[in-house]
Recover the amino acids of this structure.
């Protein structure tokens, strides 16, 4: 179930990148083999990916209701190379400064540039200094890849070991160091984020799917640390409805800050605030303040590519047409109040789907 859209043929045409081989615009298949010399890209994405427009691009061309820009690719690229270039639009060095400057809650971070062909060891002093500024411990990741091994790093040696022990970050790092990255730009960034103690025990992580500038879906796995799974159904649904509204408002802030029309947000939800909202569900007069507290406690973990590219789908099943329509379809039932929230409970056979 938890898969990326790039693995589903039905979703490969959802990204707003088009070719004009047949005289009319057709979505580029990111798994295709043809060499692309020029493409048409949704203008918001062309800006985010820093693609240079052709001289004949007048920003007055629209396709599927969105402005598109004509991009000449020099040198020509295969679709998988174009995908890597486009995916870099959601790199941490693009979104972090935007959300920070706009006041969106997110842990303080340091972004250290690693130029093509530059060994990681040359950043030893900068990494040590950054860790000290961040409080002595940091979560480390590459610009658009996180390690599967989540541990606090308190020294350069710990940072290097963490980046090289996970193939996701190791491949990105090796590519930059040899000056021939295959999964993005030839130069990149090492990102150090302030470490949050006991994150797994104090927070849940919600995955929010944004499409066409709207939060369309929320995937949430509820662990035993929350009282939510022990609650009776009415109170549980009322609490999740509050969370849904808070996440919708939070996603709107991130969308305004980043100008991403499509993305996937990982949002930390404090369990204490969620439990307070659950308690307030039994006395409706307390819900507004509990919901405001819940919204105030949310913070952004990271911003990812849209689900039709590389981000995974959480509780949504991309082999299911209805789920695909919710996350990135053109038409959603007017009676559905977005985002649709799917909550699964880790220790019991219980799944809640909240459409209202």
């Amino acid at each position: 179930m938890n898969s990326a859209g790039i693995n589903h043929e039905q979703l490969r045409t959802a990204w707003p990148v088009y070719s004009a081989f047949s005289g009319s615009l057709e979505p580029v298949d990111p798994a295709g083999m043809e060499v692309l010399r020029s493409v048409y890209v949704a203008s918001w994405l062309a800006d985010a990916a820093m693609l240079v427009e052709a001289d004949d691009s007048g920003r007055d061309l629209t396709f599927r209701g969105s402005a598109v820009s004509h991009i000449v690719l020099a040198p020509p690229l295969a679709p998988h190379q174009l995908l890597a270039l486009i995916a870099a639009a959601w790199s941490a060095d693009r979104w972090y400064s935007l959300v920070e400057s706009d006041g969106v809650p997110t842990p303080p971070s340091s972004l250290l540039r690693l130029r093509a062909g530059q060994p990681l060891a040359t950043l030893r002093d900068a990494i040590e200094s950054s860790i000290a500024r961040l409080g002595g411990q940091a979560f480390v990741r590459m610009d658009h890849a996180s390690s599967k091994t989540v541990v606090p790093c308190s020294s350069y040696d710990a940072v290097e070991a963490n980046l090289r022990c996970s193939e996701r970050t190791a491949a990105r790092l090796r590519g930059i160091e040899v000056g021939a990255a295959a999964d993005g730009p030839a130069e990149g960034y090492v990102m150090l984020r302030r470490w949050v103690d006991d994150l797994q025990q104090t927070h849940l992580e919600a995955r929010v799917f944004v499409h066409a500038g709207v939060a369309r879906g929320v995937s949430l796995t509820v662990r035993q640390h929350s009282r939510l799974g022990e609650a009776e159904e009415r109170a549980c649904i009322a609490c999740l409805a509050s969370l849904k509204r808070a996440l919708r408002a939070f996603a709107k802030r991130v969308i305004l800050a980043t100008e991403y029309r499509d993305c996937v947000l990982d949002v930390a939800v404090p369990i204490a605030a969620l439990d307070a909202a659950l308690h307030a569900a039994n006395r409706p007069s307390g819900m507004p303040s509990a919901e405001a507290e819940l919204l105030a406690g949310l913070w952004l973990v990271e911003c990812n590519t849209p689900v039709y590219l590389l981000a995974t789908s959480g509780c949504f099943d991309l082999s299911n047409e209805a789920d695909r329509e919710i996350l990135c379809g053109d038409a959603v039932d007017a009676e559905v109040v977005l985002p649709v929230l799917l909550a699964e409970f880790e220790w019991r056979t219980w799944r809640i789907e909240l459409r209202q």
